[in-house]
Amino acid sequence: MNKTINKQTERAIVLLSGGMDSLVTAAIANRDCRELFFMHANYGQLTEKRELLSFNELCKHFKPKQSRILNWDWFAQIGGSALTDPSIELPSSAEQEGIPITYVPFRNANLLAAAVSWAEVLHAEAIYIGAVEEDSSGYPDCREVFFRDFEKLIQTGTCNEFPIHIETPVLHLSKAEIVKLGMELGAPFALAWSCYQDNNVACGVCASCRLRLKAFAQAGYKDPIPYRIRQATDE
Amino acid sequence: MNKTINKQTERAIVLLSGGMDSLVTAAIANRDCRELFFMHANYGQLTEKRELLSFNELCKHFKPKQSRILNWDWFAQIGGSALTDPSIELPSSAEQEGIPITYVPFRNANLLAAAVSWAEVLHAEAIYIGAVEEDSSGYPDCREVFFRDFEKLIQTGTCNEFPIHIETPVLHLSKAEIVKLGMELGAPFALAWSCYQDNNVACGVCASCRLRLKAFAQAGYKDPIPYRIRQATDE
Predict the structure, then answer these.
(1) Mind telling me how many Å the CA of A153 is from chain B's nearest CA?
(2) How many Cβ contacts (< 8 angstroms) between chains A and B?
(3) Are A112 and A153 in contact (CB under 8 A)?
């Protein structure tokens, strides 16, 4: 692990959902870049308000130079995902066949496109996104090939006066490795929200909670946030 | 000119600014597709309200199966374009060196990303966009290479259960050819808005008005909308 402070990037935009993958990505960007610019999207996800709270807390913690919130009502209007359409039931198991119903159609392309627009104005050199390929259940827009194709699109679709790179520092890590790396960087996991189901206390049952709990267990750490199920059974 | 009715596409999304290029693109989609879905963006452009009025009028005319309006306040917040930042002066001449200040950073990528999200939900096969390469003053996201790279991104970034094509039927036409084609298809040019400068009567002076007036003159038609300058001098 390279522990030397090596601020190679002048300006970077970090896409932050408020979950633990984007938290650790922000901690990495904070280590490697001089100026941070945070971007978050409200797209009608069920835990929109709770994620926004996490984002605001993470802004207080990391103190980016600027932050922007994208209010994308239209995403909820088009539906098509269990994350944005309350009539589609959330899965309780992390293991499923095919692309899960929690996939939000082409969401990461929308996020990256917005970040690139901002990067062109700021002259930012990098966009950090906390996508995870292996643990992300096969979402097509979480794969290495997608991010490489997007970088190519940036080259053809922008003024290209300076290069804009997409940085995916946790893309090939397991969730347990992400927890370990975040702990080493002092990432405030207590502020990160993962639960798909609840806005107040993490349910401990949904696919996202299960992945997080398993990751902490495998990494040998205790997750600092309370869970409803752990509260009911362990405490 | 193929005048037979040949509805090859079942469902198509049409990105409509309300200008004449997107109007003629919609007329072509209307000829070639069974079901139309219209999408429009308010992104803080100076003539936002007027363009929205045109969009609504075009919805009344073409009667798409559904329409969606994207409210993108964040685009105006990030600035960087004379179209979204009132402190940047609009050019009055169409001929300039380099990429003009009216370029809105990576706007078409944002529009296409939103349309692809909707297309995945609708199972639409095509997205129509009225970009024009030759007359668009070198905007990087109006070039053939950009649209081909975007199609590749759709293949890697979506569930890809069905192909989604980007249709750019006016990309390589001159503005005069677009006027001619639109007239042949009965496109309602009186409803299309082009002026960058004014919300009530087209100024006749801004780069966009000049391009439109020149196109009608070259095509041998009279533009049906009134102009402030033509009103003062010709009438």
Answers:
(1) 6
(2) 132
(3) no
The pLDDT tens digits of the residues spanning B23-52 come to 999 999 999 999 999 999 999 888 889 999
- For residues A64 and A38, the answer to whether their CB atoms sit within 8 Å is yes
In a domain, B1, yes or no: no
A215 is a domain residue = no
- CATH number of residue A21's parent domain: 3.40.50.620
Q: A78 and B117: CB-CB below 8 Å?
A: yes
Report the complex ipTM.
Answer: 0.89
The residue with tokens 């980016």 is A64
Distance CA B168, CA B68 (A): 20
| Residues of chain B in Cβ contact (below 8 Å) with chain A | 68-75, 77-80, 99, 103-110, 112-114, 116-118, 120-121, 140-141, 143, 145-146, 149-150, 152-154, 156-160
pLDDT per residue over B158-187, tens digit each? 987 788 999 999 999 999 999 999 999 999
A104 CB neighbours in chain B (<8 A) are 117
d(CA A119, CA A150): 14
Phi, psi of A201 (to 5 degrees): -120, 130
Domain extent at residue B84:
9-233
A14 inside domain:
yes
pTM of the model: 0.91
Cα–Cα distance, B170 to B152 (Å, whole number): 20
Q: What is the DSSP letter of A142?
A: G
Number of domains in chain B: 1
The β-bridge relationship of strands A9-15 and A33-42 is parallel
Give the residue from A167, A217, A208, A181 showing the smallest Cα distance to A18.
A208
In a domain, A222, yes or no: no
Chain A interface, mutation test: which of B153, B155, B160, B164, most A Cβ atoms within 10 Å?
Answer: B153
Q: A162 pLDDT exceeds 70?
A: yes
